[in-house]
Every structure is written in C-alpha cells, then in structure tokens.
Specification:
Layout: H1 6-28, H2 35-47, H3 52-59, H4 63-75, E1 79-83, E2 91-95, H5 97-118, H6 123-152
Antiparallel strand pairs: 1-2
Helix pairs in contact: 2-5, 3-4
C-alpha cells in the first residue's frame, strides 16, 4: 500500500472542512465571544500572562488587530493589563476570573454545538471520528507549535 500524499488528502477534505467551519460558526455566532476572541482567551489560559506582541505572533495576526481584540476583551472585563515583572516598562495581558468563567461557559456551549453536529453520524461513523479525534488534535498542536517556533527563530 502506498502512503497517501498530503496534497491529495487536503484536496479531498478541504471543501468539507470549509463547509463544516462555516456551518459551525453560524451556529456558534449566537455566543457573545468571537472565534478570535475565544482563541486569545484560551491562549492566555494555557500560557498565562502574555505581551500583546506575543499574542499577535502566536495568533498569526498583526499587532493592531491583537491590540483591538484585547481592548474589546478588556472593556468586557475578561482580560486586564498588568505590569511585566521582568521589564517594568512592558505590559502583559492576563485573564480575569470573569474571563475564565466566560471562557468555560462559551467553550461548553460550543462543545455542545459541535456534539450536536457529530450526533447526526451513525455508530460506525462515530467510532471512526473518535479514532480521528486524536490525530486532529495532534495536527492542531503540531501546526500551532510549528507556527510559534518559526516566528521565534
């Protein structure tokens, strides 16, 4: 058996991923946090207080975009700016307790939306998706780590 080419796999699944992404976020738009805002909050929860430049780099966005998103989150009291202890001139952004609870609430809400989509599959398909979940998570972790490490080199 020959190893499948990544380009062939991508060509087969890209249209479906796009369709699922759009449908998922149409449903999830009912939440009061956008996908990028949720991603920033999740990153702050995982990595702790971070400089705006670090958040922009890790999110793959420009500094003004990151600054604007963080300003919106700060207005809602989901994040706050704190002095950088290692460089008193610098500022870091940290998650507030309200930010943590909103992150958890919206995460649970979006997990339910995705579970509803997955629940439409039959038993055999559910088993196959369950097996693929680990691969999908590994791909997301690897891609994110590769993106971050290439920016710091």
């Amino acid at each position: 058996m020959t190893t499948p080419r990544p380009e062939d796999i991508a060509a087969r699944i890209r249209p479906a991923l796009t369709k699922l992404y759009v449908m998922y976020f149409r449903i999830a738009e009912q939440s009061d946090l956008t996908g990028p805002q949720l991603s920033i909050l999740s990153r702050l929860k995982e990595r702790g207080p971070s400089r705006i430049s670090q958040i922009a780099r890790e999110e793959g966005i420009r500094m003004p975009t990151a600054s604007n998103a963080l300003h919106q989150l700060e207005q809602r009291e989901l994040v706050e700016r704190i002095r950088d202890e290692s460089d008193r001139r610098g500022v870091r952004v940290t998650l507030t307790p309200l930010g943590e609870s909103e992150l958890q609430r919206v995460g649970e809400e979006r997990t339910k939306y995705l579970a509803d989509m997955i629940a439409t599959l039959d038993e055999e398909q559910l088993s196959r998706v369950d097996e693929l979940a680990g691969v999908i998570n590994e791909l997301a972790d690897k891609y994110g780590a590769d993106l971050i490490s290439s920016d710091t080199e």
